Amino acid sequence: MRLLLIGLILFVADLGIGGLMSHFYFRLRHGEQARTTLVMDSIRAPIVVLGSSRAAHHYIPSIITDSTGLACYNAGKDQQGIFYSLAILRSILGRYRPEWLILDLTPIAFQPDQAGLDELSILLPYYRRHPEIRAVLNKRSRWEWLKTHSSLYCYNSLPLQIVFNNLYGTGDSGVINGYIPKDQPMARTPATAFTERELTDPPDSAIVGAFSEIISLSASNHCKLVVVVSPVYFSLPEGSSTTRLAGMICRDHGVPFLDYSGAGSAGFSGHPALFSDEQHLDHAGAVLFTRQLCTDLRAKGLLTKGTAR
Asked: What's this model's pTM, rounded to 2 decimal places?
């Protein structure tokens, strides 16, 4: 009887508190959670940028729009990897078909420690509302499908953000169409961004599989995909196991692959005025890079102005 009572109390608490958290979460209009909800539920831009923090800080939608005449939204997210981009793409394709997808790939995106399965908890609030992402989130653990029956589990890391962003409207200061500028100048001599092991170890097959799924989903939904490795402070003339394999996969599938971390890094790498740290461009660098990318895509006959359907 006591166990039954405890179970009932826990059930009511989960239902009540979890329901309250869900209510206030989905009424957020500011901060990273609100931007994630916008990407999952609302955006319909013809051009979408996918990727990690390097995507969020390197691609300026207004410049891409000026170059193409097409609206653009930057759906990059800090501390995320290929699995996050796959989940976001599944959600977007459940609602509409973008004309273009730009996937920013980090030079070590295929390394096992880049799986980002723990960080995928940011998508747990959407588990019930978006069945198309469940297969990705279920990779977190064999019991994920069961644990997500608990509302408290889905929101257990978010109470402070929910409260703060409901009370204050400053969470999107400077953010425009998902682009998050880094205005801080480089304050120190940068360290090497990647270890030799990260650059040379064999790629993780599960992450490579997720990357290949992004390519196949783009093709089957008639979305034109471009894969880009944006600049890093220290040039990688030999590339990495990730960039070599990604380039080969893209060539096999006819997907444009532009690598600005190696031979294409001239004008970026080694210029402290263009970086905020060893991996991220500052706003001045992002302006220069986005313009260069648009120029290069136009030169290849891609992303031309007036391509909207």
From this structure: 0.91
